[in-house]
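Figure 6 in text form: structure in, sequence out.
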C-alpha cells in the first residue's frame, strides 16, 4: 500500500511540476531563444513540451532536484524541500523493488460472508422480542396486544403483509396446514372456549419443536407455550395457516 501511495504521490507531483515548469519556461524563454540563435551547437528548436519533459524526467530519476528561487516565499521553499525528500525516498524504494530487496506489499483480500435470514426467522425473532408485553383485549401494539392483534403486528412489521384484524378471518388466509406439517412462521388456530364448538377464537405463531408464541388472555401477556407440556392446546388445535413462503 505504501508503494501505491508513493506512485499516486508522483502522479500528483508530475502535475505540480508541469505547472511549475510552465512558469519557469515562460520566464526563461527569451534566454533559451537567444541561446538557440547564437549557439550553432543547438540544432533542435526549444519547445515547452521538450523543456518540461526533460526537466521532469531528470527530477523523477533523482539526477536533478526541484529548483529553488530567491523569489519563493519561505512556505514555497519548505514545500519544495519536502517534495525533493519524497522523491528521493520513492526512488530508493523503487530501486529496492527492482533489485528484489524489498517485497511488494499485496493487498489483503477480506472475505465477506453474507448471512441470509429467512422470512420465517424474522417472524419468529420479532415475535420473541415481544415476550412479556401485556395482553389487552382489542390492542394491536406496539406495547400491548390481544391474540390476533399480536399476530397481525408481527407479520406487518416483518413481512409487510397486512393480515385481517380478527382471528376468525386470519384463519381463512394462506395455505391450510395440518398439525404434523407445522413449520416456523405458521399461524396456529384454536378453539379455547370452555364449551368446544370448533370455531376459531384464539391464534398464535408456531416457532419450532412444538412451541408457539401467543398473547395469552389467561397469563395477561405474550408467552411461549409447548404443545406437549400444555396438552390443552394440542387438544383444542384446529389448523394452521401459512402466509410465509418457504418457511424453515
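Output sequence:
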Amino acid at each position: 500500500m505504501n508503494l501505491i501511495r508513493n506512485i499516486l504521490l508522483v502522479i500528483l507531483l508530475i502535475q505540480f511540476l508541469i505547472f511549475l515548469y510552465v512558469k519557469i519556461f515562460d520566464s526563461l524563454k527569451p534566454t533559451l531563444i537567444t541561446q538557440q540563435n547564437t549557439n550553432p551547437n543547438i540544432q533542435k528548436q526549444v519547445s515547452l513540451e521538450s523543456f518540461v519533459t526533460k526537466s521532469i524526467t531528470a527530477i523523477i530519476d533523482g539526477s536533478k532536484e526541484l529548483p529553488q528561487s530567491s523569489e519563493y516565499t519561505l512556505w514555497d521553499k519548505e514545500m519544495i524541500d519536502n517534495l525533493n525528500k519524497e522523491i528521493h525516498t520513492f526512488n530508493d524504494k523503487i530501486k529496492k523493488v527492482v533489485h528484489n530487496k524489498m517485497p511488494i506489499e499485496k493487498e489483503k483480500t477480506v472475505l465477506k460472508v453474507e448471512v441470509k435470514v429467512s422470512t420465517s426467522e424474522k417472524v419468529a425473532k420479532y415475535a420473541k422480542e415481544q415476550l412479556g408485553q401485556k395482553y389487552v383485549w382489542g390492542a394491536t401494539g406496539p406495547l400491548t396486544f390481544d391474540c390476533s392483534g399480536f399476530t397481525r403486528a408481527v407479520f406487518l412489521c416483518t413481512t409487510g403483509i397486512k393480515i385481517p384484524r380478527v382471528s376468525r378471518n386470519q384463519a381463512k388466509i394462506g395455505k391450510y396446514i395440518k398439525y404434523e406439517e407445522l413449520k416456523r412462521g405458521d399461524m396456529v388456530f384454536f378453539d379455547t372456549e370452555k364449551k368446544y364448538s370448533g370455531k376459531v377464537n384464539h391464534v398464535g405463531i408456531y416457532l419450532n419443536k412444538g412451541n408457539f408464541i401467543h398473547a395469552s388472555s389467561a397469563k395477561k401477556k405474550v408467552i411461549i407455550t409447548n404443545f406437549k407440556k400444555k396438552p390443552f392446546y394440542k387438544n383444542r388445535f384446529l389448523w394452521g395457516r401459512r402466509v410465509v413462503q418457504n418457511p424453515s
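Caption detail: The radius of gyration is 40 Å.
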